[in-house]
Design goal:
Blueprint lengths: L4 E4 L31 H16 L4 E3 L6 E5 L3 H11 L8 E3 L4 H4 L7 H10 L4 E6 L7 H4 L4 E5 L4 H10 L3 E2 L14 H8 L5 E4 L10 E6 L3 E6 L5 H7 L4 E3 L2 H4 L20 E6 L2 H17 L4 E5 L11 E4 L6 H17 L4 E5 L7 H11 L4 E3 L2
Parallel strand pairs: 1-8, 2-8, 4-6, 5-9, 10-11, 12-15, 12-16, 13-14, 13-15
Antiparallel strand pairs: 2-3, 3-7, 4-7, 5-6, 9-10
Bound molecules: threonylcarbamoyladenylate (TXA) and magnesium ion (MG).
The site of threonylcarbamoyladenylate (TXA) has 29 residues, from strand 5, strand 6 and strand 10.
């Protein structure tokens, strides 16, 4: 068992690029613990301590604008190995590199095509990971899991950027959850999964987007292929690169062929209970879920429902949780992973969830919900 140190740095003004998304008042406003009194000096000392550990080969969880990441010096194989071990992550699933300065990119990738520059200008710092040909001999080979490419992003979070800058290293960081569990959107989630397995946690409260970054690869000069939908939407990519073709299909195809994004082949985000998505006319969905829930209760099972605010009061189950408003799907994105963990904490055995539109951030939300459900979806006529 390692001693896992926790730095509470407060959540004020932590986003480099503006405010957190417009989210409802919810239980997500709670903090793992009250943040320490916010003095700039103190913050600085805490981040310096965390960065020094990181630079010395430690494994530190830190907030980003998407989810908490589990960071290690990407040039240090021993450190990167510890990330795989702490998470229980398969070694053929590569890690994303986090940078704080654009100059760091040149030392990591072979070349940065014009299309990548366009996306970088539009979205960094922000929730977009770009897969590019890796420069040999700089990063630990464990980071890329044997691929000739590397995924890089610049997170939009002051604490993350400071930590990376202070460590002086490119930081490899997968989401800071045990493999197969939902990604952490609170330091408390990280602590539950990884206490005793990592060196420290920088706690700055809830993350912003709540789902991971969008991962893209570039095909030639004109095609952007989405390997994993996320915080940057297909519509936003198209707007930033009007002449590019956006290929959205790859994520769905990956199960059968050799996976282009190795992470897509693994079970992910799954709650311990059995989750079923239910699609159809609102009234029919309510009736179906309530009938199923009543039947499960008669069998002695603990039941749960994840539904949008608009219909929340219509459901009967042991635990009914909100996805926020159906008209503001970034709320659902922000709330999903905490909801999945809450079902686990309540020992929920059967869970039903409403589906949403796949427009905008809805594409990422549905992608994660489908994964959490192991693709179990019922369509009502
Ligand atoms: O928002 C995020 O991206 C968070 C925060 C911490 O930055 N990180 C994250 O990392 O979600 P992780 O390791 O949980 O997911 C990385 C995904 C995996 O599906 C992995 O297979 C894919 O990115 N990936 C990484 N490098 C790749 C590469 N060279 N080619 C294709 N896919 C890659
Ligand atoms: Mg992950």
């Amino acid at each position: 068992m390692k001693q896992t140190k926790i730095w509470h740095i407060g959540s004020k003004n932590m986003h480099a690029n503006g405010d957190k998304p417009n989210v409802v008042e919810s239980k997500m406003t709670h903090h793992f613990q009250q943040p320490d009194p916010e003095s700039a000096d103190r913050l600085d000392i805490q981040l310096k301590e965390a960065a020094a550990l990181l630079g010395a080969g430690g494994v530190i969880a830190f907030p980003t604008e998407t989810v908490y990441g589990l960071g290690a010096d990407a040039t240090n194989t021993e450190a990167v190995q510890k990330v795989f071990e702490a998470k229980g992550r398969p070694s053929d699933n590569p890690l994303i590199i986090h940078i704080a300065e654009i100059t760091q990119l040149n030392s990591i990738v072979q070349e940065c095509p014009d299309l990548a520059h366009t996306l970088i200008d539009a979205f960094w710092p922000g929730p977009l990971t770009i897969v590019m040909p890796v420069r040999e001999g700089i990063l630990s080979p464990l980071v890329t899991a044997g691929l000739p490419t590397v995924g890089v992003r610049m997170p939009d979070h002051e604490a993350a950027l400071s930590l990376i800058r202070l460590s002086g290293k490119p930081i490899a960081a997968p989401s800071a959850n045990r493999s197969g569990k939902p990604s952490p959107t609170l330091a408390e989630h990280v602590a539950n999964d990884l206490t005793g397995r990592i060196d420290g946690i920088v706690d700055s409260g809830a993350t912003g987007v709540g789902l991971e970054s969008t991962v893209v690869e570039l095909i030639g000069e004109h095609t952007i292929r989405i390997l994993r939908p996320g915080g940057v939407t297909a519509e936003e990519l198209q707007k930033a690169a009007p002449n590019a073709r956006i290929d959205r299909g790859a994520a769905a195809l990956l199960e059968s062929e050799a996976p282009r994004s190795p992470g897509m082949k693994y079970a992910h985000y799954a709650p311990q209970g059995e989750l079923t998505l239910v699609r159809g006319d609102a009234e029919a969905v309510i009736t179906y879920i309530n009938e199923q829930s009543a039947a499960a209760k008669r069998r002695g099972e603990r039941t749960g429902v994840l539904a949008f605010e608009e219909r929340l009061a219509s459901y009967q189950a042991d635990l009914v949780l909100s996805s926020g408003s159906e008209r503001l799907l970034q709320q659902g994105a922000y709330l999903l992973y905490d909801a999945l963990r809450s079902f686990d904490n309540a020992g929920t055995e059967r869970i039903w969830a409403e589906v949403c539109s796949e427009e905008g951030i809805g594409a990422a939300l549905m992608n994660r919900m489908m994964k959490a459900a192991g693709s179990s979806i019922i369509t009502l006529k």
